[in-house]
Amino acid sequence: MKNSTRKENVMVLARHDFGRSLKRPLKRFWAIIFMALGFYAFSLMAVPYTASANDSAFAYYSGEIKQPVDHGVWGAFLQRYVVSDEEGLNRVAYGKVTAEDRASLEAYIASLEAIDPTRLGGDEAFAYWVNLYNAVTVKIVLDHYPIASIRDIRTGFRAGPWKRDVVRVNGRDLSLDDIEHGILRQYWNEPRVHYAVNCASIGCPNLAKRPYSGSTLDMDLDKAASAYINSPRGVSLKRGRLKVSSLYRWFRSDFGRKERDVVDHLRHYAAPELQMALAGKTDIDSYEYDWRLNDAE
């Protein structure tokens, strides 16, 4: 009787240990799966966005076309629908855009697609890509309006429209990421590009009220940089703590290797009061970005 009881106890313990031994690898398995899913989800939301490829077809610009690109339709659209609020933020009256003006915007984008930008000069080509990027972004928002944020427009599992092919130039399908990261950032080495392209968000540098032009490009980029850096969306200092836009974290390498290089860049465009406040600063305390739509409604 005692031996029988002992055997039963041993069998129960064995089954218990076997069950525990099965649960351990299962727990590890599901832990790995959840970690992998979490990492994948984070990678989908991660910024900076990247181009699918750096297209060498758009690496060189001959300058053989001397006549500036006509951005008149885009300029009229901007004048009609971009308004500045009391804080200096340029907002777009998406809800007021007429069917006629939407058609004109689409025709303007099609006219840019018909141009070979590699025959333009460097500054004119830079302005061409920026205006194309911004016009297409506005069109995408209009296609999905009303929305709370451009990130509500999905590309597969990804937030935002930046990865989808949206234009065709020189026979090549391009996404917004391709234009910004695979062409503009790749071949111009110009950190002020971040103040020119607009992502339709409150946290973004302003959508300019007039098109970019090769003839005034340097002045226009300086003006855009100064406007953003001297706004609380770009830089703010409270009780000695420096908070800046997340742009300077996502794209730090465009402004320098370290935070002190970013601060030097900010100081260069800062108004006198902000310059004084930045004196002696070398580190950034926090980053912030507002993804809400830059809607005038």
What are the key terms here?
mainly alpha; three-stranded mixed β-sheet; 10% strand; 297 residues
Description of the structure:
The chain has 297 residues and is mainly α. Among the domains are: 1-46; 56-214, no CATH class. Helices cover 48% and strands 10% of the residues. It has helices spanning 2-45, 72-81, 99-113, 122-144, 176-188, 217-229, 247-250, 252-255, 259-269, 272-278, and strands at residues 82-84, 90-92, 154-155, 158-159, 165-169, 172-175, 235-238, 241-245, 286-288. A hairpin with a 2-residue loop joins strand 5 and strand 6. It is globular.
Give the topology.
Blueprint: H1 2-45, H2 72-81, E1 82-84, E2 90-92, H3 99-113, H4 122-144, E3 154-155, E4 158-159, E5 165-169, E6 172-175, H5 176-188, H6 217-229, E7 235-238, E8 241-245, H7 247-250, H8 252-255, H9 259-269, H10 272-278, E9 286-288
Parallel strand pairs: 8-9
Antiparallel strand pairs: 1-2, 3-4, 5-6, 7-8
Helix pairs in contact: 3-4, 4-5
Strand content: 5-15%
- What does the oligomeric state look like here? single chain
Helix content percent band: 40-55%
Please give the order of strands in the largest beta sheet. 7-8-9
Radius of gyration: 26 Å
> What coarse outline follows from CA principal-axis ratios?
globular
- The ordered H/E elements are HHEEHHEEEEHHEEHHHHE
Mean pLDDT: 89
Low-confidence stretches: 36-46
| Count of β-strands | 9
**Main β sheet profile:** 3 strands, mixed
Number of helices: 10
Structural class: mainly alpha
